Amino acid sequence: MDTEVLKTQSLAWLLSAATDPMLIADEAGLIVLANDAAHRLFGYAPPALSGQAVEILVPEGVAGDHARLRGSYAEQPRARPMGKGLELQARHSAGYLFPVEVSLSPLETPDGARLVMATIHDISARKRYETALLESEERMRAVFETAVDAIITIDERGMVERMNPAAQRIFGWTEAEVSGKNIKMLMPSPDRERHDGYLHHYISTGEKRIIGKGREVKGLRKDGTVFPMDLAVAEMHISGKRMFTGLVRDITERKQAEERNAALLAELTSANEELTNFAYVVSHDLKAPLRAIGSLADWLATDYADKFNDEGKEHMRLLINRVHRMAALIDGILQYSRVGRVREAGAAIDLNRVLAEVVDLLAPPPHIQVRVQADLPTVTAEPTRIHQLFHNLLSNAIKYMDKPEGEVDVTFEDAGAEWHFQVRDNGPGIEARHFERIFQLFQTLAPRDRVESTGVGLALVKKIVEMYGGRVWVESVVRQGTAFHFTLPKTQPTGKLE
């Protein structure tokens, strides 16, 4: 067999055994041999590439330049990558382009014919990875540059490598001024002197004191001012190099707000103490002489009844009523002041029992019927406050009733996260313009000498309901009746009840 034929067959066998796509072209640019891997890469069925010009495998727009460069290579053939420094693309039989890397190796036949062998690598996957990595880096760079919090990166020696714009604003240094310098320059004493020891201790032992944990520390600005900050440090390894990234938040405003809140709390505590003292004075120093006045008025009205004419008797009646009203007003003020300030232990309260007690205590007159819906729920609250709540609402309905056959109904409904209660009567009703006013302290719509009222009851109702996180409102039609609505959450937030 001819030696040339043997060599050609050997070369074809080597190409077919190769796993990488390979092809051999002559000086005219015609493909002499192409292995199966090359056919698969370009989408051709073997041996379709044989005898074809290599330009069918390059983008149409650069085919002319490729032919010229092919001629240049033939003049100085050597093993080298094709198009060094350029991003090469190949053309698939389906017409789409894909990125490749091509290695060229010159060959020469015994008769002096020059060939070139090309090894082609499809780098589509690598390009996608590089693109994704670049996009990821760009996103991270955008986060780094635009983050509101300060971000500082240091190496394992504590030297600053990067500092984002927020960090530059907070500390007053530029990145160039701190780059390559020890991070401790941003710390006040004694942390400045201790930092190198902390870092060395961690690298030596792995014992974490702040890495991976949030911590409140002090920072030092370029102008020498010290400020409070939250610091979180994360460890990372990049190309085998240990790095630490610190996330810093200036909490000066938060600390100032906390100080203001502490001062306000101290003032509130002082005001509560004064209110407690005032309540004590009202309870003892005012009610004692008031009781004396009431007793004296009762004695005069009884022992000197025959001495008074009708006008005198009316004046004595008004005097006694106003003394009683004043005593009731003092009691109402004391009750109002105690809501939310003096706390009882929360307990499970059966409202069926509470309503029975309230109705029994009020003892409605025969012409007023009080109806309470059966199976009222059990709520968790302070017993005294719940008793006051229903007592005031029912007392109002009974007190202002103007119908010969009065009706008062207490109902409820399950409103999901809360209970919705309603106390409805068929009394005189309330004009809409008074809906907000009636819940204010000391406000009453009827003349005080006609209906005994302190104007505290509904204000107390509103304060109790809102203390438990509920709402209270009124619906009414004049001469037809009034419905007071209020809600109580089924679950009290932590801290609501002691």
From TrEMBL:
One GO term of the cellular component aspect?
plasma membrane
Q: What is this enzyme's catalytic activity, as reactions?
A: ATP + protein L-histidine = ADP + protein N-phospho-L-histidine
**Domain annotation PAC: ranges:** 84-135, 213-263
Q: Which UniProt keywords apply?
A: ATP-binding, Kinase, Membrane, Nucleotide-binding, Phosphoprotein, Transferase
Localization of this protein: Cell inner membrane
Q: What is its EC number?
A: 2.7.13.3
What protein name does the entry list? Sensor protein FixL
